[in-house]
Design a protein that fits this description.
259 residues; alpha/beta; 11 helices; 56% helix
């Protein structure tokens, strides 16, 4: 059947292309199918700017790219999704297949990439890619550091408390009656003397190091709060203005597409 433009319907389908990308740390496996699902090509590309450009050129040679299905746009596929979106390519989030099942069936990255492309063609895939740009992405990156610092600080104070409980009485009794914050400052300023072979001296040395670590982590958290606060206020001024909602709480509530 001829179309108004002179091409048969089948020919027009052949000129249309859809892509699928199976993402990994160092190499992305990309597959291309035509508008009726026929496999055209599969190739691996390095996860570098040059590799992304070669991947884009391969998708477009020749024909019109309707969409590209990508697995893991919130992880290994974040940068290639950004790159293709900037070039006007429609990106569709594809569910990552069961890796164990894939190994049991002898599947490879090329098969997963082809599956991503056909999932877009059939309509099985229709997920919205995770946004990885703008203020929200900046906030996410800074919060990763803050969260790990808070976790490490909690671990540090728990270690301090455990060492104090099990310390020789001469060490334990001096610290037991101090206010909750004061032991950290007292231990950080201490100057343990004696031989490290003596348990009391070893405990004092360990407590001093842990206390200084706690202080350093507290400063790191303060710095992160100073950086995150203005970003959250800019991204969600009405949210941050609500009573009882600070930058930390608001930062957790920012939707990924709020950038």
């Amino acid at each position: 059947m001829a179309s108004p433009g002179g091409l048969t319907l089948r020919s027009r389908h052949c000129l249309v292309r859809l892509g699928g990308i199976d993402t990994h740390t160092d190499l992305h496996q990309a597959a291309v199918v035509d508008g009726i699902g026929r496999h055209l090509a599969t190739e691996a590309f390095e996860t570098t700017p040059a590799g992304y450009q070669r991947l884009l050129d391969r998708l477009r040679s020749p024909g019109e790219v309707l969409a590209v299905g990508i697995e893991g746009t919130g992880a290994h596929g974040a940068e290639i999704a950004r790159f293709l979106t900037a070039d006007g390519i429609t990106i569709v989030e594809v569910d990552r297949p069961d890796r164990k099942a894939g190994r049991d069936n002898g599947k490879s990255g090329s098969v997963d990439a082809y599956g991503a492309a056909t999932a877009v063609l059939s309509g099985r895939a229709g997920g919205t890619p995770t946004a990885r740009n703008g203020i929200v992405e900046a906030n996410r990156a800074l919060r990763v550091v803050r969260k790990s610092a808070v976790k490490a600080r909690t671990q540090t104070i728990n270690q301090i408390r455990t060492l104090i409980v099990t310390a020789p009485s001469g060490v334990r009794d001096k610290l037991r009656g101090l206010p909750s914050r004061e032991p950290i400052d007292t231990l950080a300023r201490s100057r343990p003397a004696g031989e490290l072979a003596d348990p009391a001296c070893a405990v004092k040395t360990a407590l001093r190091r842990l206390a200084r670590r706690y202080q350093a982590l507290s400063e790191e958290i303060k710095d992160a709060d100073k950086e995150i606060g203005p970003l959250v206020a800019q991204a969600a001024p009405r949210l941050i203005a609500l009573p009882g909602v600070g930058p930390e709480t608001a930062g957790q509530l920012l939707p990924p597409d709020n950038s």
